[in-house]
Specification:
The chain is an all-alpha fold and 183 residues long. It has 6 helices and no strands. The longest helix has 36 residues. The chain starts with 6 loop residues before the first helix and ends with a helix.
Length: 183
Amino acid sequence: MKLIYSPSSTLIRSVIALVLGAVLVIWPEKVKEVLVTIVGVLLIIPSVITLMAMLLEKKKGYDKRQIMTIILGGAMAILGIIMVLFPDKFINLFTLLFGIILFLAGVLQVVGVYNYCKQTKNYYLIIVPLIILAVGVITIVNYANIPNVLLIIIGVAALLYGVSEILNYYKLKNLEIQEAEKE
């Protein structure tokens, strides 16, 4: 668990969450299609590179693993192209996936902060991770009903998560300093 919840990874996660949260709160209507298009492009690029590398490789035949890679690469490229051409069809799916990500981030933060709360008896620190977890659950349950409102809620939750992670960063740094002084 130490590798996942280290001060440096905490700081990186907080910056990403703050940027993403701010974008979602400020431009929810515009961001929906743009994010789906970006995901589509991110599917296309590595798929095409992999396919080109496999097809340009000078071999007489392909084994089962290589054939599967070609099929999956082609399927991912096609999915990416469809996402780029028809982003509005994938907005609900994106909202659901982001809700799952928020849920998992909330779980990770609850697990990471719980031990610190137990040691210091500062149980109020677990409130924000529980809110993030709850927003993740709400988003997963209601992803298709109101994407704009959910994106704003997700954005606010991501901002809360980012601020909370920055606070956790400083707490973890102080804890590391205290442990280093004991040794």
